[in-house]
Protein backbone atom coordinates (compact mmCIF):
# COMPACT_ATOMS: atom_id res chain seq x y z
CA UNK A 1 0.00 0.00 0.00
CA UNK A 2 2.65 2.48 1.08
CA UNK A 3 4.80 2.24 -2.05
CA UNK A 4 1.73 2.54 -4.23
CA UNK A 5 0.71 5.73 -2.46
CA UNK A 6 4.23 7.12 -2.66
CA UNK A 7 4.27 6.54 -6.38
CA UNK A 8 0.94 8.28 -6.87
CA UNK A 9 2.02 11.23 -4.75
CA UNK A 10 5.25 11.50 -6.68
CA UNK A 11 3.27 11.79 -9.88
CA UNK A 12 0.79 14.29 -8.53
CA UNK A 13 3.28 16.49 -6.70
CA UNK A 14 6.30 16.03 -8.94
CA UNK A 15 8.65 15.15 -6.11
CA UNK A 16 9.74 12.15 -4.11
CA UNK A 17 7.52 11.64 -1.09
CA UNK A 18 8.38 9.34 1.78
CA UNK A 19 5.46 8.32 3.92
CA UNK A 20 5.66 7.58 7.62
CA UNK A 21 3.20 6.12 10.08
CA UNK A 22 1.98 8.97 12.29
CA UNK A 23 -0.05 8.84 15.49
CA UNK A 24 -3.54 7.62 14.73
CA UNK A 25 -5.27 11.01 14.91
CA UNK A 26 -2.91 12.30 12.21
CA UNK A 27 -4.16 9.88 9.62
CA UNK A 28 -2.87 6.65 8.16
CA UNK A 29 0.29 8.12 6.65
CA UNK A 30 2.15 11.41 6.95
CA UNK A 31 4.95 13.23 5.19
CA UNK A 32 7.32 15.90 6.41
CA UNK A 33 8.38 16.89 2.92
CA UNK A 34 7.36 20.53 3.53
CA UNK A 35 10.11 20.86 6.13
CA UNK A 36 12.88 19.96 3.77
CA UNK A 37 11.43 22.20 1.05
CA UNK A 38 11.07 25.12 3.44
CA UNK A 39 14.77 25.86 3.56
CA UNK A 40 15.20 25.68 -0.18
CA UNK A 41 12.17 27.83 -0.96
CA UNK A 42 12.62 30.17 1.99
CA UNK A 43 9.00 29.76 2.99
CA UNK A 44 7.40 28.31 6.09
CA UNK A 45 6.65 24.58 6.10
CA UNK A 46 3.07 25.43 6.94
CA UNK A 47 2.67 27.49 3.80
CA UNK A 48 4.23 24.82 1.62
CA UNK A 49 2.18 22.02 3.12
CA UNK A 50 -1.01 23.95 2.51
CA UNK A 51 -0.11 24.40 -1.13
CA UNK A 52 0.80 20.76 -1.61
CA UNK A 53 -2.36 19.58 0.06
CA UNK A 54 -4.49 21.18 -2.67
CA UNK A 55 -2.62 19.36 -5.39
CA UNK A 56 -3.37 15.85 -4.15
CA UNK A 57 -6.28 14.45 -6.13
CA UNK A 58 -6.05 10.69 -5.77
CA UNK A 59 -9.22 8.86 -4.83
CA UNK A 60 -7.18 6.65 -2.58
CA UNK A 61 -7.40 9.31 0.10
CA UNK A 62 -10.59 10.27 1.83
CA UNK A 63 -8.88 13.31 3.26
CA UNK A 64 -5.55 15.09 3.00
CA UNK A 65 -4.76 17.58 5.67
CA UNK A 66 -1.97 20.12 6.12
CA UNK A 67 -1.25 20.49 9.80
CA UNK A 68 1.66 22.33 11.36
CA UNK A 69 3.71 21.79 8.25
CA UNK A 70 2.98 18.07 8.04
CA UNK A 71 0.87 16.44 5.37
CA UNK A 72 -1.53 13.87 6.78
CA UNK A 73 -3.21 11.32 4.58
CA UNK A 74 -6.35 9.32 5.36
CA UNK A 75 -7.05 6.20 3.32
CA UNK A 76 -10.33 6.08 1.47
CA UNK A 77 -12.81 3.25 1.44
CA UNK A 78 -11.87 2.68 -2.20
CA UNK A 79 -8.18 2.30 -1.34
CA UNK A 80 -8.93 -0.23 1.37
CA UNK A 81 -11.28 -2.26 -0.80
CA UNK A 82 -8.89 -2.34 -3.73
CA UNK A 83 -6.01 -3.40 -1.57
CA UNK A 84 -8.03 -6.07 0.21
CA UNK A 85 -8.95 -7.56 -3.15
CA UNK A 86 -5.31 -7.50 -4.21
CA UNK A 87 -4.45 -9.46 -1.08
CA UNK A 88 -7.11 -12.03 -1.87
CA UNK A 89 -6.10 -12.35 -5.52
CA UNK A 90 -2.35 -12.46 -5.10
CA UNK A 91 -2.35 -14.65 -1.99
CA UNK A 92 1.15 -15.88 -1.13
CA UNK A 93 2.65 -13.55 -3.70
CA UNK A 94 1.08 -10.48 -2.16
CA UNK A 95 3.88 -7.92 -1.77
CA UNK A 96 6.60 -10.44 -2.43
CA UNK A 97 9.79 -9.17 -4.06
CA UNK A 98 11.73 -5.95 -4.29
CA UNK A 99 15.21 -4.82 -5.05
CA UNK A 100 17.22 -6.56 -2.39
CA UNK A 101 20.94 -7.15 -2.32
CA UNK A 102 22.93 -10.30 -1.75
CA UNK A 103 23.15 -11.80 1.71
CA UNK A 104 24.99 -14.66 3.33
CA UNK A 105 23.55 -15.75 6.64
CA UNK A 106 25.38 -18.08 9.01
CA UNK A 107 22.93 -19.88 11.27
CA UNK A 108 22.25 -23.01 13.29
CA UNK A 109 25.89 -24.17 13.24
CA UNK A 110 25.80 -26.89 15.90
CA UNK A 111 28.83 -28.91 16.94
CA UNK A 112 29.28 -32.54 15.97
CA UNK A 113 29.54 -35.40 18.43
CA UNK A 114 27.10 -33.64 20.69
CA UNK A 115 23.32 -33.84 20.57
CA UNK A 116 21.63 -30.79 19.13
CA UNK A 117 21.12 -28.61 22.19
CA UNK A 118 18.58 -25.89 22.74
CA UNK A 119 21.52 -23.51 22.58
CA UNK A 120 21.51 -23.91 18.81
CA UNK A 121 17.76 -23.89 18.55
CA UNK A 122 17.43 -20.12 18.66
CA UNK A 123 20.03 -19.66 15.99
CA UNK A 124 18.23 -22.19 13.81
CA UNK A 125 14.79 -20.67 14.27
CA UNK A 126 15.69 -16.99 14.08
CA UNK A 127 18.21 -17.62 11.32
CA UNK A 128 15.70 -19.46 9.16
CA UNK A 129 13.13 -16.74 9.71
CA UNK A 130 15.57 -14.00 8.69
CA UNK A 131 16.43 -16.06 5.67
CA UNK A 132 12.74 -16.23 4.73
CA UNK A 133 12.13 -12.54 5.39
CA UNK A 134 15.02 -11.33 3.28
CA UNK A 135 14.20 -13.73 0.47
CA UNK A 136 10.63 -12.45 0.56
CA UNK A 137 11.87 -8.86 0.32
CA UNK A 138 13.74 -9.68 -2.88
CA UNK A 139 17.21 -10.42 -1.56
CA UNK A 140 19.26 -13.24 -2.91
CA UNK A 141 20.08 -15.10 0.28
CA UNK A 142 22.45 -17.98 0.95
CA UNK A 143 22.28 -19.84 4.23
CA UNK A 144 25.37 -21.49 5.66
CA UNK A 145 25.56 -24.02 8.43
CA UNK A 146 29.01 -23.37 9.93
CA UNK A 147 29.17 -26.77 11.55
CA UNK A 148 31.58 -27.11 14.46
CA UNK A 149 33.55 -30.13 13.29
CA UNK A 150 37.16 -29.18 13.88
CA UNK A 151 39.44 -28.38 16.76
CA UNK A 152 41.27 -30.01 19.64
CA UNK A 153 38.06 -31.26 21.25
CA UNK A 154 37.78 -33.81 18.45
CA UNK A 155 41.30 -34.97 19.24
CA UNK A 156 40.14 -35.60 22.78
CA UNK A 157 37.14 -37.53 21.54
CA UNK A 158 39.26 -39.70 19.26
CA UNK A 159 41.69 -40.43 22.05
CA UNK A 160 38.85 -41.53 24.30
CA UNK A 161 37.32 -43.68 21.56
CA UNK A 162 40.63 -45.50 21.21
CA UNK A 163 41.20 -45.74 24.92
CA UNK A 164 37.81 -47.34 25.54
CA UNK A 165 38.20 -49.43 22.44
CA UNK A 166 34.88 -48.28 21.00
CA UNK A 167 33.50 -48.47 17.51
CA UNK A 168 31.85 -45.08 16.87
CA UNK A 169 29.64 -46.73 14.27
CA UNK A 170 27.87 -48.44 17.16
CA UNK A 171 27.45 -45.32 19.26
CA UNK A 172 24.69 -42.79 19.41
CA UNK A 173 25.52 -39.09 19.35
CA UNK A 174 24.63 -38.94 23.01
CA UNK A 175 27.19 -41.65 23.71
CA UNK A 176 29.80 -39.74 21.77
CA UNK A 177 29.17 -36.78 24.00
CA UNK A 178 29.52 -39.03 27.04
CA UNK A 179 32.96 -40.07 25.83
CA UNK A 180 34.03 -36.46 25.66
CA UNK A 181 32.68 -35.85 29.12
CA UNK A 182 34.56 -38.85 30.49
CA UNK A 183 37.76 -37.57 28.94
CA UNK A 184 37.41 -34.39 30.95
CA UNK A 185 36.57 -36.29 34.12
CA UNK A 186 39.73 -38.36 33.70
CA UNK A 187 41.73 -35.27 32.97
CA UNK A 188 40.88 -33.86 36.37
CA UNK A 189 43.11 -36.57 37.85
CA UNK A 190 45.61 -36.69 35.04
CA UNK A 191 46.29 -33.33 33.39
CA UNK A 192 48.73 -34.98 30.98
CA UNK A 193 45.73 -36.26 29.04
CA UNK A 194 45.43 -32.82 27.51
CA UNK A 195 48.57 -33.67 25.58
CA UNK A 196 46.99 -36.91 24.30
CA UNK A 197 44.04 -34.98 22.96
CA UNK A 198 46.37 -32.63 21.15
CA UNK A 199 48.31 -35.52 19.67
CA UNK A 200 45.16 -37.01 18.23
CA UNK A 201 44.06 -33.72 16.79
CA UNK A 202 47.45 -33.42 15.16
CA UNK A 203 46.93 -36.84 13.60
CA UNK A 204 43.60 -35.63 12.33
CA UNK A 205 45.13 -32.47 10.90
CA UNK A 206 47.88 -34.41 9.22
CA UNK A 207 45.27 -36.62 7.59
CA UNK A 208 46.34 -39.79 9.35
CA UNK A 209 44.14 -42.61 8.10
CA UNK A 210 42.62 -43.94 11.29
CA UNK A 211 42.01 -40.55 12.86
CA UNK A 212 40.28 -39.36 9.70
CA UNK A 213 38.14 -42.44 9.46
CA UNK A 214 36.92 -42.26 13.05
CA UNK A 215 36.25 -38.56 12.79
CA UNK A 216 34.29 -39.08 9.55
CA UNK A 217 32.06 -41.59 11.27
CA UNK A 218 31.38 -39.24 14.17
CA UNK A 219 30.57 -36.47 11.74
CA UNK A 220 28.27 -38.54 9.58
CA UNK A 221 26.38 -39.85 12.60
CA UNK A 222 25.90 -36.35 13.93
CA UNK A 223 24.74 -35.02 10.59
CA UNK A 224 22.22 -37.80 10.27
CA UNK A 225 20.77 -36.84 13.61
CA UNK A 226 20.80 -33.11 12.82
CA UNK A 227 19.08 -33.80 9.50
CA UNK A 228 16.21 -35.46 11.34
CA UNK A 229 15.89 -32.45 13.59
CA UNK A 230 15.95 -30.02 10.68
CA UNK A 231 13.28 -32.05 8.99
CA UNK A 232 11.05 -31.94 12.01
CA UNK A 233 11.69 -28.21 12.38
CA UNK A 234 11.02 -27.72 8.66
CA UNK A 235 14.33 -25.95 8.36
CA UNK A 236 16.58 -26.29 5.37
CA UNK A 237 19.99 -24.67 5.12
CA UNK A 238 21.53 -24.17 1.68
CA UNK A 239 25.08 -25.24 2.47
CA UNK A 240 26.72 -27.12 5.29
CA UNK A 241 30.29 -25.90 5.30
CA UNK A 242 31.83 -26.90 8.57
CA UNK A 243 34.98 -25.52 10.10
CA UNK A 244 36.96 -28.41 8.63
CA UNK A 245 36.04 -27.18 5.15
CA UNK A 246 38.45 -24.27 5.60
CA UNK A 247 41.40 -26.42 6.57
CA UNK A 248 43.19 -26.03 3.25
CA UNK A 249 42.40 -22.31 3.18
CA UNK A 250 43.97 -21.42 6.49
CA UNK A 251 47.57 -21.02 5.37
CA UNK A 252 46.45 -18.50 2.75
CA UNK A 253 44.66 -16.25 5.16
CA UNK A 254 47.50 -16.49 7.66
CA UNK A 255 50.00 -15.51 4.97
CA UNK A 256 47.79 -12.66 3.86
CA UNK A 257 47.51 -11.39 7.41
CA UNK A 258 51.28 -11.54 7.82
CA UNK A 259 51.99 -9.82 4.51
CA UNK A 260 49.53 -7.04 5.14
CA UNK A 261 51.04 -6.46 8.55
CA UNK A 262 47.76 -7.32 10.25
CA UNK A 263 49.17 -10.29 12.18
CA UNK A 264 52.11 -10.20 14.52
CA UNK A 265 54.15 -12.65 16.58
CA UNK A 266 53.62 -12.61 20.29
CA UNK A 267 55.14 -15.12 22.69
CA UNK A 268 55.35 -17.73 19.98
CA UNK A 269 51.78 -17.20 18.85
CA UNK A 270 50.45 -15.22 15.91
CA UNK A 271 47.88 -12.62 16.89
CA UNK A 272 45.82 -9.77 15.49
CA UNK A 273 45.73 -6.67 17.63
CA UNK A 274 42.93 -4.12 17.75
CA UNK A 275 42.55 -0.64 19.05
CA UNK A 276 39.68 -1.25 21.46
CA UNK A 277 39.49 -5.02 21.74
CA UNK A 278 41.71 -7.70 23.19
CA UNK A 279 43.86 -9.46 20.58
CA UNK A 280 42.61 -12.50 18.67
CA UNK A 281 44.74 -15.53 17.94
CA UNK A 282 45.47 -16.83 14.45
CA UNK A 283 48.04 -19.41 15.49
CA UNK A 284 48.59 -20.78 18.96
CA UNK A 285 52.13 -21.15 20.22
CA UNK A 286 52.00 -24.86 19.33
CA UNK A 287 51.28 -23.87 15.75
CA UNK A 288 47.64 -24.94 15.66
CA UNK A 289 44.92 -22.77 14.17
CA UNK A 290 41.86 -21.57 16.04
CA UNK A 291 38.12 -21.04 15.74
CA UNK A 292 39.02 -17.47 14.84
CA UNK A 293 41.38 -18.49 12.01
CA UNK A 294 38.70 -20.67 10.50
CA UNK A 295 36.10 -17.95 10.75
CA UNK A 296 38.40 -15.48 9.05
CA UNK A 297 39.04 -17.93 6.22
CA UNK A 298 35.27 -18.41 5.97
CA UNK A 299 34.75 -14.65 5.53
CA UNK A 300 37.16 -14.61 2.63
CA UNK A 301 35.62 -17.68 1.08
CA UNK A 302 32.08 -16.35 1.34
CA UNK A 303 33.10 -13.05 -0.21
CA UNK A 304 34.77 -14.75 -3.12
CA UNK A 305 32.04 -17.25 -3.75
CA UNK A 306 28.87 -15.24 -3.14
CA UNK A 307 29.89 -11.55 -3.30
CA UNK A 308 27.46 -10.62 -0.54
CA UNK A 309 26.54 -7.05 0.37
CA UNK A 310 25.66 -8.26 3.83
CA UNK A 311 27.08 -11.02 5.97
CA UNK A 312 24.87 -11.97 8.88
CA UNK A 313 25.76 -14.18 11.82
CA UNK A 314 22.92 -15.59 13.91
CA UNK A 315 25.03 -16.60 16.90
CA UNK A 316 24.52 -16.35 20.67
CA UNK A 317 25.42 -13.20 22.57
CA UNK A 318 28.26 -15.07 24.28
CA UNK A 319 30.21 -14.68 21.03
CA UNK A 320 29.95 -10.91 20.77
CA UNK A 321 33.65 -10.39 21.32
CA UNK A 322 34.69 -13.12 18.90
CA UNK A 323 32.58 -11.67 16.11
CA UNK A 324 33.60 -8.10 16.82
CA UNK A 325 37.19 -9.20 16.45
CA UNK A 326 36.32 -11.07 13.29
CA UNK A 327 34.58 -8.13 11.61
CA UNK A 328 37.35 -5.80 12.67
CA UNK A 329 40.06 -8.17 11.38
CA UNK A 330 38.23 -8.59 8.06
CA UNK A 331 38.20 -4.82 7.71
CA UNK A 332 41.89 -4.54 8.58
CA UNK A 333 42.65 -7.07 5.87
CA UNK A 334 40.64 -5.01 3.42
CA UNK A 335 38.21 -7.87 2.80
CA UNK A 336 35.05 -5.96 3.70
CA UNK A 337 33.86 -3.04 5.77
CA UNK A 338 32.59 -3.59 9.25
CA UNK A 339 29.25 -2.22 8.06
CA UNK A 340 28.85 -5.21 5.77
CA UNK A 341 28.56 -7.50 8.79
CA UNK A 342 25.81 -7.93 11.30
CA UNK A 343 25.73 -10.09 14.39
CA UNK A 344 22.24 -11.13 15.50
CA UNK A 345 23.40 -11.77 19.04
CA UNK A 346 20.55 -13.70 20.58
CA UNK A 347 19.94 -14.11 24.28
CA UNK A 348 19.96 -17.47 25.96
CA UNK A 349 17.32 -19.89 27.10
CA UNK A 350 16.27 -19.67 30.68
CA UNK A 351 14.68 -22.59 32.35
CA UNK A 352 11.74 -22.04 34.57
CA UNK A 353 12.75 -23.89 37.64
CA UNK A 354 11.70 -27.49 37.88
CA UNK A 355 10.15 -27.49 34.45
CA UNK A 356 13.09 -28.60 32.39
CA UNK A 357 15.84 -30.51 34.07
CA UNK A 358 19.28 -30.26 32.64
CA UNK A 359 20.45 -33.82 32.57
CA UNK A 360 23.41 -34.31 34.80
CA UNK A 361 23.91 -30.58 34.72
CA UNK A 362 24.71 -30.53 31.04
CA UNK A 363 23.11 -28.95 28.03
CA UNK A 364 19.43 -29.49 27.44
CA UNK A 365 18.87 -31.63 24.40
CA UNK A 366 16.40 -30.47 21.83
CA UNK A 367 15.12 -33.97 21.37
CA UNK A 368 13.96 -34.05 24.99
CA UNK A 369 12.32 -30.67 24.64
CA UNK A 370 10.46 -31.72 21.52
CA UNK A 371 9.21 -34.97 22.96
CA UNK A 372 8.10 -33.19 26.09
CA UNK A 373 6.20 -30.53 24.21
CA UNK A 374 4.63 -33.12 21.93
CA UNK A 375 3.42 -34.98 24.95
CA UNK A 376 1.86 -31.77 26.20
CA UNK A 377 0.36 -31.01 22.80
CA UNK A 378 -1.12 -34.49 22.65
CA UNK A 379 -2.75 -33.79 25.97
CA UNK A 380 -4.14 -30.48 24.70
CA UNK A 381 -5.86 -31.90 21.63
CA UNK A 382 -6.86 -35.19 23.22
CA UNK A 383 -10.56 -34.36 23.37
CA UNK A 384 -10.71 -32.12 20.35
CA UNK A 385 -13.71 -33.21 18.27
CA UNK A 386 -12.14 -31.94 15.04
CA UNK A 387 -9.38 -34.53 15.26
CA UNK A 388 -11.80 -37.38 15.65
CA UNK A 389 -11.61 -39.81 12.78
CA UNK A 390 -8.07 -38.86 11.78
CA UNK A 391 -5.73 -41.78 11.35
CA UNK A 392 -3.14 -42.09 14.14
CA UNK A 393 -0.49 -41.10 11.61
CA UNK A 394 -2.26 -37.92 10.60
CA UNK A 395 -3.00 -37.13 14.21
CA UNK A 396 0.68 -37.40 15.04
CA UNK A 397 1.49 -34.98 12.23
CA UNK A 398 -0.97 -32.47 13.59
CA UNK A 399 0.57 -32.82 17.03
CA UNK A 400 4.07 -32.35 15.68
CA UNK A 401 3.05 -29.18 13.86
CA UNK A 402 1.43 -27.79 16.97
CA UNK A 403 4.43 -28.66 19.12
CA UNK A 404 7.02 -27.32 16.70
CA UNK A 405 4.93 -24.21 16.06
CA UNK A 406 4.73 -23.63 19.80
CA UNK A 407 8.49 -23.92 20.26
CA UNK A 408 9.25 -21.64 17.33
CA UNK A 409 6.76 -18.96 18.19
CA UNK A 410 7.87 -18.92 21.82
CA UNK A 411 11.27 -18.05 20.50
CA UNK A 412 10.36 -15.65 17.72
CA UNK A 413 7.89 -13.54 19.65
CA UNK A 414 10.67 -12.07 21.75
CA UNK A 415 13.29 -9.72 20.47
CA UNK A 416 16.41 -11.73 19.78
CA UNK A 417 18.37 -9.94 22.48
CA UNK A 418 15.99 -11.08 25.18
CA UNK A 419 16.30 -14.48 26.75
CA UNK A 420 13.67 -17.15 26.24
CA UNK A 421 11.83 -18.86 29.03
CA UNK A 422 10.29 -22.25 28.60
CA UNK A 423 6.82 -22.14 30.00
CA UNK A 424 4.98 -25.11 28.56
CA UNK A 425 1.48 -23.92 29.31
CA UNK A 426 2.06 -20.48 27.89
CA UNK A 427 3.64 -21.97 24.78
CA UNK A 428 0.66 -24.15 24.02
CA UNK A 429 -2.13 -21.90 25.20
CA UNK A 430 -4.91 -21.73 22.63
CA UNK A 431 -5.96 -18.38 24.01
CA UNK A 432 -2.71 -16.58 24.60
CA UNK A 433 0.20 -15.21 22.64
CA UNK A 434 1.26 -18.57 21.25
CA UNK A 435 1.97 -20.39 18.01
CA UNK A 436 -1.00 -22.73 18.37
CA UNK A 437 -3.30 -19.73 18.86
CA UNK A 438 -2.24 -18.40 15.46
CA UNK A 439 -2.53 -21.80 13.83
CA UNK A 440 -5.96 -22.17 15.35
CA UNK A 441 -7.00 -18.79 13.96
CA UNK A 442 -6.06 -19.96 10.45
CA UNK A 443 -8.00 -23.17 10.86
CA UNK A 444 -10.97 -21.13 12.04
CA UNK A 445 -10.75 -18.73 9.07
CA UNK A 446 -10.62 -21.66 6.68
CA UNK A 447 -13.65 -23.25 8.18
CA UNK A 448 -15.58 -19.95 8.11
CA UNK A 449 -14.72 -19.54 4.43
CA UNK A 450 -15.70 -23.08 3.65
CA UNK A 451 -19.01 -22.75 5.42
CA UNK A 452 -19.75 -19.39 3.83
CA UNK A 453 -19.03 -20.65 0.32
CA UNK A 454 -18.75 -18.38 -2.73
CA UNK A 455 -19.27 -14.67 -2.15
CA UNK A 456 -19.42 -11.56 -4.31
CA UNK A 457 -15.99 -9.87 -4.38
CA UNK A 458 -17.38 -6.58 -5.72
CA UNK A 459 -17.94 -5.48 -2.15
CA UNK A 460 -20.47 -2.67 -2.32
CA UNK A 461 -21.33 -2.22 1.32
CA UNK A 462 -19.32 0.20 3.44
CA UNK A 463 -16.98 -1.09 6.11
CA UNK A 464 -17.92 -0.35 9.67
CA UNK A 465 -15.32 0.92 12.14
CA UNK A 466 -14.19 -2.55 13.26
CA UNK A 467 -13.94 -3.83 9.72
CA UNK A 468 -11.99 -0.82 8.58
CA UNK A 469 -9.49 -1.38 11.42
CA UNK A 470 -8.97 -4.96 10.33
CA UNK A 471 -8.44 -4.01 6.71
CA UNK A 472 -5.99 -1.30 7.71
CA UNK A 473 -4.03 -3.86 9.66
CA UNK A 474 -4.02 -6.19 6.68
CA UNK A 475 -2.67 -3.60 4.28
CA UNK A 476 0.23 -2.72 6.60
CA UNK A 477 1.73 -6.16 5.97
CA UNK A 478 4.62 -5.20 3.71
CA UNK A 479 5.71 -2.38 6.00
CA UNK A 480 5.82 -4.83 8.88
CA UNK A 481 7.96 -7.29 6.95
CA UNK A 482 10.32 -4.49 5.92
CA UNK A 483 10.65 -3.31 9.51
CA UNK A 484 11.36 -6.88 10.61
CA UNK A 485 14.04 -7.20 7.94
CA UNK A 486 15.67 -3.84 8.60
CA UNK A 487 15.91 -4.59 12.29
CA UNK A 488 16.70 -8.31 11.98
CA UNK A 489 13.68 -8.77 14.18
CA UNK A 490 11.17 -11.48 13.28
CA UNK A 491 9.44 -10.59 16.56
CA UNK A 492 7.96 -7.57 14.76
CA UNK A 493 6.11 -9.98 12.49
CA UNK A 494 5.15 -12.20 15.42
CA UNK A 495 3.64 -9.28 17.32
CA UNK A 496 1.77 -8.06 14.28
CA UNK A 497 0.37 -11.51 13.56
CA UNK A 498 -0.81 -11.92 17.10
CA UNK A 499 -2.52 -8.54 17.09
CA UNK A 500 -4.24 -9.27 13.81
CA UNK A 501 -5.39 -12.69 15.02
CA UNK A 502 -6.70 -11.26 18.25
CA UNK A 503 -8.55 -8.51 16.45
CA UNK A 504 -10.06 -11.00 14.04
CA UNK A 505 -11.13 -13.42 16.75
CA UNK A 506 -12.92 -10.75 18.70
CA UNK A 507 -14.56 -9.60 15.46
CA UNK A 508 -15.61 -13.20 14.83
CA UNK A 509 -17.17 -13.42 18.28
CA UNK A 510 -19.19 -10.33 17.64
CA UNK A 511 -20.35 -10.59 14.03
CA UNK A 512 -21.89 -13.16 11.81
CA UNK A 513 -19.60 -13.60 8.85
CA UNK A 514 -21.18 -16.03 6.42
CA UNK A 515 -23.70 -14.41 4.10
CA UNK A 516 -21.93 -11.06 4.28
CA UNK A 517 -19.60 -10.32 1.35
CA UNK A 518 -17.34 -7.77 2.95
CA UNK A 519 -16.86 -9.86 6.08
CA UNK A 520 -16.11 -12.92 4.01
CA UNK A 521 -13.52 -10.90 2.11
CA UNK A 522 -11.98 -9.66 5.34
CA UNK A 523 -11.81 -13.21 6.67
CA UNK A 524 -10.05 -14.32 3.51
CA UNK A 525 -7.67 -11.37 3.70
CA UNK A 526 -6.86 -12.12 7.34
CA UNK A 527 -6.20 -15.75 6.44
CA UNK A 528 -3.86 -14.85 3.57
CA UNK A 529 -1.86 -12.46 5.72
CA UNK A 530 -1.59 -14.68 8.78
CA UNK A 531 -0.52 -17.58 6.57
CA UNK A 532 2.09 -15.32 4.97
CA UNK A 533 3.39 -14.24 8.35
CA UNK A 534 3.53 -17.77 9.67
CA UNK A 535 5.40 -18.91 6.63
CA UNK A 536 7.94 -16.12 7.22
CA UNK A 537 8.27 -17.46 10.75
CA UNK A 538 8.62 -21.02 9.35
CA UNK A 539 5.48 -22.12 11.17
CA UNK A 540 3.13 -24.37 9.25
CA UNK A 541 -0.55 -24.82 9.91
CA UNK A 542 -2.18 -28.21 10.46
CA UNK A 543 -5.24 -29.09 8.40
CA UNK A 544 -7.35 -29.51 11.49
CA UNK A 545 -7.00 -28.60 15.11
N1 LIG B 1 29.65 -23.92 16.33
C1 LIG B 1 29.69 -22.68 17.03
C2 LIG B 1 29.24 -22.87 18.47
O1 LIG B 1 28.48 -23.77 18.74
C3 LIG B 1 28.84 -21.61 16.41
C4 LIG B 1 29.33 -21.14 15.07
C5 LIG B 1 28.75 -19.83 14.70
N2 LIG B 1 29.19 -19.36 13.43
C6 LIG B 1 30.42 -18.87 13.18
N3 LIG B 1 30.73 -18.52 11.97
N4 LIG B 1 31.29 -18.72 14.15
O2 LIG B 1 29.60 -22.14 19.34
Structural summary, described in words:
With 545 residues, the chain is an alpha/beta fold. The protein has three domains: 2-75, 2-Layer Sandwich (Gyrase A, domain 2), CATH 3.30.1360; 107-355, Rossmann fold, CATH 3.40.50.620; 366-536, Isoleucyl-tRNA Synthetase, Domain 1 (Orthogonal Bundle). It is built from 20 helices and 13 strands. The protein has helices spanning 2-13, 33-41, 45-55, 77-90, 119-136, 152-163, 173-189, 193-206, 209-233, 250-259, 291-306, 320-332, 366-381, 392-412, 424-428, 435-452, 465-475, 477-486, 490-510, 517-536; strands spanning 29-31, 61-67, 70-75, 102-106, 140-145, 239-240, 263-266, 269-272, 280-283, 310-316, 341-346, 349-351, 420-422. The strands form four sheets. The protein has a five-stranded parallel sheet, with helices on both faces. Helix 2 packs across helix 3, helix 6 crosses helix 8 and helix 11 crosses helix 12. The radius of gyration is 28 Å and the shape is flat. The model is unreliable at 354-361 (pLDDT under 50). Arginine binds next to strand 10. Arginine binds at residues 106, 109, 111, 146, 148, 295, 313, 315.
List keywords for this structure.
single chain; about 550 residues; alpha/beta; Gyrase A, domain 2; Rossmann fold; Isoleucyl-tRNA Synthetase, Domain 1; 3 domains; five-stranded parallel sheet; three-stranded antiparallel sheet; 20 helices; flat; binds arginine
User: CATH homologous superfamily of the largest domain - what is it?
Assistant: HUPs
Number of domains: 3
Low-confidence stretches: 354-361
Percent of residues in helices comes to 40-55%
* Overall body shape: flat
Main sheet strand line-up: 6-5-4-10-11
Taking the alpha carbons of the first and last residues, their distance comes to: 33 Å
Radius of gyration, CA atoms, in whole angstroms? 28 Å
Strand content: 5-15%
Q: Structural class, please?
A: alpha/beta
Query: Which topology of the largest domain does CATH recognise?
Result: Rossmann fold
Number of DSSP-assigned strands = 13
CATH class label of the largest domain: Alpha Beta
CATH architecture term of the largest domain:
3-Layer(aba) Sandwich
The helix count comes to 20
Largest sheet: 5 strands, parallel
